[in-house]
TrEMBL record, chains A, B:
Cofactor(s) in the UniProt record: Zn(2+)
HAMAP family for the chain: ArgJ (MF_01106)
Coiled-coil blocks: none
Main location: cytoplasm
NCBIfam families named among the record's database cross-references: ArgJ (TIGR00120), PRK05388.1 (NF003802)
Pathway assigned in UniProt: Amino-acid biosynthesis; L-arginine biosynthesis; L-ornithine and N-acetyl-L-glutamate from L-glutamate and N(2)-acetyl-L-ornithine (cyclic): step 1/1; Amino-acid biosynthesis; L-arginine biosynthesis; N(2)-acetyl-L-ornithine from L-glutamate: step 1/4
Protein name as it appears in the record: Arginine biosynthesis bifunctional protein ArgJ
Record site: Involved in the stabilization of negative charge on the oxyanion by the formation of the oxyanion hole: 109-110
Site feature Cleavage, where: 181-182
Leading EC class: transferase
Length: 390, 390
């Protein structure tokens, strides 16, 4: 069900003593080949964590043998010392696993602005290398070791009838994680795929999964999604079929992140239809998904559609109020930006909320549509995020 | 201290029965002349309330005699019926005060998506017309009648040694007001100022006051700021001096809005210096001020500067991490995007927080600087905004 679902991968997750709690905090994912194609997508934040700077650099080769992941510290805003820690981590993994440091990516998650304990980290890499296995349990251990405020591990896999598999794990809930402690995800496949196909497939998959999850609009210093291909199935995957499978795994993981987001009491999907362009559809959906007044109303199970209409109205997208309809959980509440149905008919007592916004500017086969998943703004969110670093 | 501080104005605030609570909910501000220049700034939301559509239209003449304001309902998303209500309100005021409806602006605030009770509103206009006075108490009554979740009335005035006065009142806390119930502000002056000067002065004043207050990033359907000039002092104001006085009054009112924002436990000023442009300075300051993780950290009195650095890093502005410094309440915590001071030295126990971000891209007399005022994200904010319309 995870990074070991595809053939050709071994993994381990152990407690290296980085987290004060003593919980698992270090993981290794190793591609045993025969192939070693890899692709990655990183945060667009201009303040990038040391492991992001390192991993982006090594990935320019389009190949990876190893990923080292740690929780318990983001290694962000840590300067040259932090970069040296990321570098030393890759060197240690290369040494114990018999490859080059340039074939090792590093991912970190946790509080920004503190140095990682380098000796513990390096000893942890050695310990994890001794525990490597290709079993489902080893995949579970990776999923467990990268958790921060996650309450459950997150894994997914898809097997294609042609004989290859895509699997993966993730942590965090988009940018909601405390201190931007971020999302990390490692995906593995045994399909035979060329580097350009792997790269294009990852970008497409991320665009329609992790990029469509927006919990609080904050962009992390550490976000990293990596995909590694071993080619161990010996089966060359059709690019379109592979992209669809990778997207399915990423969407599954993104939904698990939404369901486990900090302080979540409602899982909200904002669906915008009839936009002038796909970009506009995304912009309007994202603006509504980020609006604090919409999110607090949902927390209160209050079908306050006026806040949805107002958020759509200030989104940076084409909009004609006379064509703006708002439907919440199936009840049309606002037609042409005018009150329509009765709020009392709209039941928000459940855990899932669907906010549908029709912009009326495109339709049918040419209609531009987008969905953004988000969560409500609850007391638990405020509580978890108001006391993290201290 | 308010809309009646300048000569040539009479005002009234009464209970018209729009609010179920029976509290004051309707106000009139009447310019007795001899002059009647006016200017206005309205929400840029594409979904505009009926009174905004009406007032924007009548203000194209650059003249106003009367402003009618009501709380208890925003008259937004109310369609043709709502527009007819705004129109009928202006007609009624024109009739009882002996002017044209085209000289009457209308402002509304409250829940989006419900029709105002038109008979109560029109009877209220008549009742308020009978209560008009040029006294400070009449100004107080206006400030009281436009309050929604405000806990205190908000008024300010400045008198110039040359012999003229600018006064005003406001309600709301930027866009934080529930259901985008918005900010409304009426400013009055007895200075002699031409229409172009009045218009330019208002835009400048709003830019450096209300536009620099950002509580939750939401833009209302009803935001309106109006300035009326009676010229009753007979003194022609120097444009620059007048602009400075108007800006002072608006900044004073904006600070009162910040201090009374919903759920506020911290008054936060984000000051960005050394930006590549003034627009960049505003963008970075606003991005930090809107970041939910920064705002929850401040609520928890947690000097989590990593969240500030991360928010600066995802702002759509020029930024070089190696020059990024973050100082909170006077303690330099981050230099060149690297941990510097000790969090423990940073005392956030008080009500005021100053977050200083130096971008290092400009300096001295050519330095680009901006300040945005905001508040923390507290349990009280979630509480007040999770149960409003129902």
């Amino acid at each position: 069900m995870s990074v070991t679902a595809a053939a050709g991968f071994r993994a381990a997750g152990i407690a290296a003593g980085i987290k004060k709690s003593g919980n698992a905090d270090l993981a290794l994912v190793v591609n045993e080949g025969p192939r070693n194609e890899a692709a990655g997508v990183f945060t667009r934040n201009k303040v990038k964590a040391a492991p992001v700077l390192w991993s982006r650099q090594v990935l320019t080769t389009g190949a990876l043998r190893v990923v080292v992941l740690n929780s318990g510290g983001a290694n962000a805003c840590t300067g040259p010392e932090g970069f040296q820690t990321a570098h030393a981590t890759a060197e240690k993994a290369a040494e114990v696993l018999g490859c080059g440091a340039v074939e090792v990516a590093v991912c970190s998650t946790g509080l920004i602005g503190e140095q990682l304990p380098r000796p513990a980290l390096l000893a942890g890499v050695e310990k994890a290398a001794g525990a490597l296995a290709g079993t489902p349990e080893a995949g579970d251990a990776v999923a467990g070791a990268i958790m921060t405020t996650d309450t459950v591990p997150k894994q997914a896999a898809v097997t294609d009838p042609a004989g290859w598999t895509v699997g993966g794990t993730t942590k965090g809930a988009g940018m909601i994680a405390p201190s931007m402690a971020t999302m990390l995800s490692v995906l593995t496949t045994d399909a035979v795929v060329s580097r350009p196909v792997l790269d294009a497939a990852l970008r497409e998959a991320v665009k329609y999964s992790f990029d469509r999850l927006d919990v609080d609009g904050s962009m992390s210093t550490n976000d990293t999604v990596l995909v590694l291909s071993s080619g161990a199935s010996g089966v060359e995957a059709d690019p379109a079929v592979f992209t669809a499978a990778l997207t399915r795994v990423c969407r599954d993981l993104a939904e698990q992140m939404q369901a486990d987001a900090e302080g979540v009491s409602k899982r909200i999907t904002v669906r915008v239809t009839g936009a002038a362009s796909e970009d506009d559809a995304v912009t309007v959906a994202r603006t509504i998904a980020r609006d604090a007044l919409v999110k607090t109303a949902m927390f209160g199970s209050d079908p306050n559609w006026g806040r949805v209409a107002a958020a759509a109205g200030y989104a940076d997208a084409e909009l004609d109020p006379e064509r703006l309809d708002v439907t919440i959980n199936g009840v049309l509440l606002c037609k042409g930006a005018v009150v329509a149905g009765d709020r009392a008919d709209c039941d928000l007592s459940g855990r899932d909320v669907l906010i549908e916004v029709e912009l009326g500017l495109s339709g049918g086969a040419e209609g531009h549509v987008a969905e953004i998943r988000t969560t409500d703004l609850s007391h638990a969110y405020v509580e978890e995020n108001s006391a993290y670093s201290s």
